[in-house]
TrEMBL record:
Protein's UniProt name: TLC domain-containing protein
InterPro entries named among the record's database cross-references: TLC-dom (IPR006634), TLCD (IPR050846)
Pfam families xref list: TRAM_LAG1_CLN8
Locations listed in the record: Membrane
Length: 268
């Protein structure tokens, strides 16, 4: 009789296409690539940002945050596109694909993307802690630590990649969050652009960080027979991390809604 562990090993060989012994090298290379990408975008922001008049009027700490949000936005756009591809376009996670249980599926490309995203979270967390609390409070630290835990477990265990990508897909709202900060820092809180961005952020947050997480939890319930086959670390991570992030997203959602209503009421 084939055990879940045997099936898992066969799936890694079939879908991933690389030996487990090479995982540390692949992880290290991917993470370094992510860190270098963040550093590159940050350096470009430091060169380009002074071309915008509002930037020159900011304090030193605000300029650091302005540039930091540049690579945050770049990561959000890239990882959202990659997540949408793996979840909705590729057949990697489709129920009728002949790759076995969905919780054990991954590929070389999907693992590399996880490593690159891990490099971003390391870079951003390092800056958050170095300039704490200017770039974000404890909720940002918790969010990044949970994300890094999930990414690393999924990478090295080869498990739960589908759920990790579902969570990463929620990063699609980050550009709107950053644009809100940019417009506010530029003194444009009364502008039409600020109001439109607020509405887009509200609906984007509702879809990507509330409804999507509800779907994720329902998916976990429907596929719980597969979830129970996960290794202990991945099993508890899948059961704990999404609900924790979902709770944080709901709290932030009410703040987003409050901010949108406040902005629209001033324009009425």
């Amino acid at each position: 009789m084939m055990t879940p562990q045997t099936l898992h090993s066969q799936l890694l060989s079939l879908v991933s296409g690389y030996p487990r012994a090479e995982q540390p090298t692949l992880w290290f290379s991917s993470v370094i690539l992510g860190i270098l990408a963040c550093k590159t975008v940050y350096n470009v922001m430091k060169v380009v940002s002074p071309l915008f008049p509002p930037y020159t009027r900011l304090s030193k700490s605000q300029k650091i945050e302005w540039d930091n949000r540049g690579f945050s936005t770049a990561h959000a756009i890239a990882i959202s596109a990659a997540s949408a591809y793996f979840v909705f376009i590729s057949d990697l996670f489709k129920d009728d694909a002949p790759y076995g249980p969905i919780v054990f599926r991954n590929s070389v490309s999907s693992q590399v993307v996880l490593g690159i995203s891990g490099g971003y979270f390391i870079s951003d967390l390092a800056m958050i802690l170095w300039f704490y609390p200017n770039l974000g409070g404890k909720e940002y630290v918790i969010h990044h630590l949970l994300s890094m835990l999930s990414l690393n477990l999924s990478f090295f265990n080869g498990e739960g990649s589908f759920y990790v990508y579902m969570v990463l897909l929620s990063e699609v709202t980050t550009p709107f969050v950053n644009m809100r900060w940019y417009l506010s820092s530029a003194g444009m809180k009364k502008s039409k652009a600020y109001a439109i961005n607020g509405v887009l952020l509200f609906f984007g947050w509702m879809i990507a960080r509330v409804l999507l997480f509800m779907y994720l939890i329902i998916h976990l319930y429907v596929h719980f027979d597969q979830v129970r086959q996960l290794s202990k670390g991945s099993y508890y991570c899948v059961l704990i991390v999404p609900p924790c992030l979902a709770s944080m997203n709901i709290v932030w959602f009410f703040k987003v809604a409050k901010g949108m209503l406040k902005t629209l009421s001033k324009r009425a």
